[in-house]
Each structure stands twice: as C-alpha cells, then as structure tokens.
Amino acid sequence: MAKQLDKRVKDLLAKHDINPREACWDCHGSWVIYHKYCEIIAAKAGITFDPPNIIEASIEKQTVVLCVTGRMGDRAEWSFGEASPDNLKGGAKTFPYAMAEKRGKDRVILKLAGIHGLVYSEEEADDFKKGPSRGPTTSLAQKVASRKEEVTAEFLDDDEVREQWNRLSKAHNMAGLSKADAARSWQEAIGLLSATSGKEIPVKKRDMLDSFIDKACKSLAH
C-alpha cells in the first residue's frame, strides 16, 4: 500500500488553498512537492529571505553552494543550496546559481512551514524531477517544464547575451566587485529575464537588465 501524505502537510496546503493532488506526489515512498507550490506557501505565509551567503562559487566547475536564511515572524531557519554537474541535468547545468538558490529556499520554506522531512521539494534530487506517473496530464506538465528549461538554456547560449555579459563584466570590474559578486548579480539579472520565450532580448528588457546591473554594482561595491 502506498504511503499516505501526512495530515500535517494536507492541513498546511489546505490552509493556503492548495490542492494536494496538484502539488504533491509519491516518489518511491517519499512525498515530493513542486517548487512553484513552495513559492506559493512562502508568499502566503509572509516568508522573507536574507541575501544568500556564498560558500562556494566556481563558474569554471559549475559548482555553487549557498547558505540561505529565511524568516517568518520571529522565527528564522537556514539551509544550504548546492548545485554542481553531479546533481544537475540538461539545461539546468547552465544556471547553477539559480538552481542552488531554489534548492536552498525550498528547504528553508518547508522548515519554516513545519513540514520539512514530511515532504521534499522537487528540486532536492533528479529522481524527483521525473515527476509522478499519473497519466497523460502529468506527463504533459513534465514536458512543458522540460521545454522551459531548454528555452532558458537557449536564451543563455546567445551571442547578444554574451555581448551583454562581456560589457557588464567590465562595469563589475570597475566597481571593484569580486568574481562571485559579479556572477551573482548577473544570475539575478538573468532571473529577471527568465520569462523570455526566445533568444532575442527586447529593448525594454535590455534596459531593465542594465538598470539592475547598475544598481547591483553600486550596492555590492559599498
């Protein structure tokens, strides 16, 4: 008999108007929750995050380790988010900073919500990313999620994006930023553009990127 989802998880999801059948699935005996529902829980519960503490950041090795701290009222929890070629697949290898952030934040959200260990984020392991086997609807959802990763990877692997990065790197260096801080602000800027559906960067979004990087340079340089 399949292991039932813990009542404490069901109660929390119900509190935030989340359908457990849509948000969770049983992966070989471990209950898993989609990342987007972790974000919904955080938003509805008023969870906020401190700037991450970068433990390790190597663009060459594609390895990132962040210490993430979250707060809910007078409570605080922290956890690590790790990303490396050993635990990333496909297009996700292109943005290890974003993946490390998602993993760290999801763990902290579940801790603050009081359900970590009862359910795990889909970002915790590649086996979870395969999703449940519940028929064509779920299969289609997984295909869409996979395609979104491919689009993001295509966007990052683009001449115009590289040109932007080369130009903005000089601005980072002029601001006296470390490589880690420069890479972090670039990854955050890319996050602002994650909704882009193709390779071209619209002028409006280029301006948004420039503005963000300028602010990042000034804030991180002081």
Report on this structure.
- With 222 residues, this protein is of the alpha+beta class.
- The chain has two domains: 7-155, no CATH class; 158-220.
- Helices cover 52% and strands 17% of the residues.
- The chain contains nine helices and seven strands.
- Strands 3, 4, 5 and 6 form a four-stranded antiparallel beta sheet that branches. A three-stranded mixed beta sheet has the order 1-2-7.
- Strand 5 and strand 6 (75-83) form a beta hairpin.
- Helix 3 (35-45) packs across helix 4 (96-113) and helix 8 runs antiparallel to helix 9.
- The longest helix is centred in the middle third of the chain and has 21 residues, at 136-156.
- The model is unreliable at 133-145 and 194-199 (pLDDT under 50).
Percentage of residues assigned to helices? 40-55%
Total separate domains: 2
Distance between the termini: 58 Å
* Biggest pleated sheet: 4 strands, antiparallel
Strand/helix succession: HHEEHEEEEHEHHHHH
Number of helices: 9
Mean pLDDT: 74
The stretches of 5 or more residues where confidence is low (pLDDT under 50) are: 133-145, 194-199
| Shape by Cα distribution | globular
The secondary structure category is alpha+beta
Q: What is the number of strand segments?
A: 7
Rg is 19 Å
Strand residues, percent: 15-25%
